[in-house]
Design brief:
Strand order of the largest sheet: 3-4-8-6-7
Order of helices and strands: HEEEEHEHHHEEHEEEHEEHEHEEEHEH
Number of domains: 2
Shape: globular
CATH architecture of the largest domain: 2-Layer Sandwich
Structural class: alpha+beta
Radius of gyration: 21 Å
Number of strands: 17
C-alpha cells in the first residue's frame, strides 16, 4: 500500500517542461487495446500507487488508489460477502482498477448491473498541468453539472492519470444458476430480449456455438422458481462459463485473427458477418473473429444502431475505434485541451487525432 501521487506529479511537471510525452500505464495487461503507444513516450507508471483508502461495507462504498489490482479489491470484498457487480474482466494478475475504468471494461452482467462507469462515484486525477484534482465524491448522488468522473471511462488515459477511485460495491447474490439449450442464431435475439424483459432475476444472456445461456442470480426462491418456469437444462459449473466470457478466455476468443467488438441495439437483427460470432449482453454486445474491412463493419454497426472497434489484434497503427463525426471530434479535442493542454498523455492511443 503506497501513495506515490507526489512522485507522479513531479514526473508530469518535469515532462511538461521538457515537452516529453507520457504513456500512462497501470499493470500493463491492456496494452493490446487502442492504437499502438507512442514509442517515444516515457512511461508514467501507476502500478505502485496502490491500496484501499477507505472501505465502508455498510454503506457499500470503497475508495482505492488506481494501481490497486482487481484481485486485491475482490479479496477485501469477499470478507464481507460483497463484489463488484460490473464483473471487471481480468487479463492478468496485474489488472488494476484504474485501467479497468480507463478502458471502460465490464462483464456479462453489464445490462442488468451497470458498467464500471455507472459504479463510479468520484475520482482524483492528475491533469496535464500537474494539478491533482478531485471530482465527484463518496455518495450516490453527488454530481452537479458535468460528470467528469465518468468521463474517464473509455478515455484510455488521454485526459490524465487517474490516481484514486470511489465506487459502489454490492452484496453477492445468494444463489446463481445457468440454463442452457440449443438454439439457432436466427432465433436467439428475439428469445434473449424476451427473457430479459421479464421481471425475473436474470443477470446474463449469451449465445455461442449454437447454444443460448441464461444466468439467474438472486434469492434462492426466485432463482429456483424461474428455472422451473423457463426452458433449458441446468448447466453444471455454470460459473465457469460466465468467467470465461468475463475474462475473454473462452475458446471463441483464442487465436491470432483480429477480434472485433460490436456495441449495438439489443434487438438489432443478425449482422450477417462472415465468420465466428459470439453474442452477449442479451444482444447488445456482439463479438466477431476474422480479417475484415473496417469501413464495411462500421457501416454494418451503424445500421444496427451502434459502433464497432477492433478490440484486439490486427493493425494497431491505423484507427481501431469507430470513426466519430466531426462535431464529436471537436468536443473531444476541446476536452483534451482542457485537461491536457500540451498533449502529454497517451498521444494517439484512442484516436490518431487526439
Amino acid at each position: 500500500m503506497a501513495d506515490i501521487s507526489k512522485k507522479l506529479r513531479e514526473q508530469i511537471l518535469d515532462a511538461r517542461g521538457k515537452g516529453q510525452k507520457l504513456n500512462v500505464v497501470g499493470g500493463g495487461t491492456k496494452q493490446f487495446m487502442g492504437r499502438e503507444s507512442d514509442s517515444h513516450a516515457e512511461p508514467l507508471e501507476l502500478k505502485k500507487h496502490t491500496g484501499i483508502v477507505e472501505y465502508h461495507p455498510v454503506e457499500l462504498i470503497m475508495t482505492v488508489r488506481a494501481g490497486t489490482t482487481i484481485a486485491e479489491i475482490q479479496n477485501a470484498l469477499d470478507e464481507h460477502g460483497q463484489c463488484l457487480h460490473f464483473e471487471p474482466p481480468v487479463f492478468g494478475k496485474g489488472s488494476t482498477i484504474g485501467g479497468t475504468l480507463a478502458c471502460n471494461l465490464s462483464g456479462p452482467a453489464r445490462p442488468w448491473s451497470g458498467s464500471v462507469r455507472d459504479q463510479v462515484l468520484g475520482i482524483r486525477l492528475l491533469n496535464g498541468k500537474g494539478e491533482h484534482l478531485r471530482f465527484g465524491g463518496q455518495v450516490m448522488k453527488n454530481v452537479a453539472g458535468y460528470d467528469t468522473s465518468r468521463l474517464q471511462a473509455g478515455a484510455m488515459g488521454t485526459l490524465g492519470a487517474i490516481t484514486e477511485i470511489s465506487l459502489k460495491v454490492m452484496p453477492k447474490p445468494a444463489m446463481t444458476m445457468t440454463l442452457v439449450e440449443e438454439m439457432p442464431q436466427s432465433d436467439v435475439i428475439r428469445y434473449m430480449n424476451q427473457r430479459a424483459g421479464e421481471p425475473k432475476p436474470i443477470t446474463g444472456a449469451a449465445w455461442v456455438n449454437g447454444k443460448v445461456y441464461l444466468r439467474l442470480s438472486g434469492a434462492k426462491s426466485a432463482v429456483e422458481a424461474t428455472a422451473k418456469k423457463w426452458s433449458g437444462e441446468v448447466l453444471e459449473n455454470g460459473d465457469d462459463f460466465w468467467q470465461q466470457l468475463q475474462h475473454l478466455t473462452h475458446d471463441f476468443f483464442k487465436g491470432d485473427e483480429p477480434l472485433w467488438r460490436f456495441s449495438v441495439g439489443s434487438t438489432a437483427p443478425d449482422l450477417a458477418l462472415d465468420g465466428p460470432q459470439l453474442i452477449d449482453w442479451a444482444g447488445s454486445q456482439r463479438w466477431f473473429r476474422g480479417v475484415a474491412d473496417s469501413a464495411r463493419l462500421e457501416s454494418i454497426a451503424k445500421k444496427a444502431g451502434g459502433q464497432v472497434s477492433m478490440f484486439r489484434g490486427g493493425d494497431r497503427t491505423d484507427e481501431v475505434m469507430h470513426h466519430q463525426p466531426q462535431a464529436l471530434q471537436a468536443i473531444q479535442q476541446r476536452l483534451k485541451e482542457s485537461f491536457d493542454p500540451d498533449g502529454l498523455f497517451n498521444p494517439g492511443r484512442l484516436y490518431s487525432w487526439l
